[in-house]
Amino acid sequence: MKPAPTLSSAFLEPAGHSLPGPLLELRKQRGTALVDMPLPTRKTENWKYSSRHLKLTDGLAASLPATGKNGLSLSLPGYRVVFRNGVMIPEASDFPDIEGILIQRFGDLDDSDAAALAERLDNTLDTRAVQMARLNSARFEDGLYIRLDKEAVLDQPLFFVHEVTGTDSGSAYPRIYVDAARHSQITLVEEYLSSGDQPVMVDSVTEFTLGDGANVTSVRLVMEGENVQHIGATGVRQAANSRFESHCVGFGGPLRRHDLMVRLEGEGGECKLNGVVVTQGKQHYDNHTSIEHVAAHCNSEETYRNIAADQSHAVFNGRIHIHEDAQKSNANMNNKNLLLSTGAEIDTKPELEIYADDVKCAHGATIGQLDKISLFYLVSRGIGRREANTLLTMAFINELVEQIPVQAVKDAAQIRLNEFFDQTFEEA
């Protein structure tokens, strides 16, 4: 019997050493635990559709150098922190100066703050299910630590802009940790971009801890090129009466994967998860979400929509788990999918696991094609076939795009969507 593949020892070579001692020790411990780590296969349930797209060759093991000229447009309406290949670029960043808000790179933390952070990293994620987050914990060279004191409010969005350069083959491991104390408020935008054409991998992890009444909005925009495998994980833990809102917009590539895990641990907590995925060519995108209703009187609402063209493949796996003590929970999950060609494929798997008896839960999933009657109606009114296809497809996701609370992200997404429509639809 053929042995299961394991992580190459090339990925366990020591990374950079510009971190405080407690974080270096944490990274060493995580690396030791990765020895002989089995890689996901088709028999690994949560990687069933994606394992064949994961290419962890030895050529990707080296950390990409954080050098080179910045290739990004930085006219962003808010604060920004720029990372290149997993390492912060201070001269390109613009930090807020607001009392009660600390934003620092991992490498600038003193030993006391670094020790406290080391105790909290990985506490929001089930790393048994999110295997690649374990690799990030063993390899991150830098990171962004955001701490909001009680009632602190960031007045504008904070943009975390990560560019991966493909001039050399290798990998990058961006890391973010957000600690939002009681009644604090922040909007964090993660924007992932790329340049160059050599094969690279991005393995990103973002963690949020919300105190009582905290209000956090997370916006995630993935727009890297065809040479980039991107595997991301986001973990969230919520205390009483807190609110977490997520908006994820992703464009496909050779492998795109995002695991989003939310734990509602205090009564009155709320979360809202929106996602839009677009794939074409032979691209692949896999979204896995998990909402744990641990406490009573919590609400969750989840809406994801996928569009697949050509021979591409999109996957959605959403899980809601209502714990025994989570009475009066209210949970709703909806996934709609649109196939634009006979060669495209979409797999959807909504899951409900309920152990409480006084709850309201619902889920739904659909997969279909553009409505021929609607298309005929538009064409019969003098609208070109290409424009009619575009209008109907945009209408399918416009509700979610319009809910993105940051205009700059909506504009960037719309530009990429227009490119997608131009490439997918041809004038009859």
TrEMBL record:
GO annotation (BP), single: iron-sulfur cluster assembly
Domain SUF system FeS cluster assembly SufBD core: 168-396
Spans traversing the lipid bilayer: none
One of the Pfam families matching this protein, by short name: SUFBD_core
Origin: domain of life: Bacteria
InterPro entries linked: Fe-S_cluster_assembly_SufBD, SUF_FeS_clus_asmbl_SufBD_core, SUF_FeS_clus_asmbl_SufBD_sf, SUF_FeS_clus_asmbl_SufD
NCBIfam families tied to this protein: sufD
Protein name (database record): Fe-S cluster assembly protein SufD
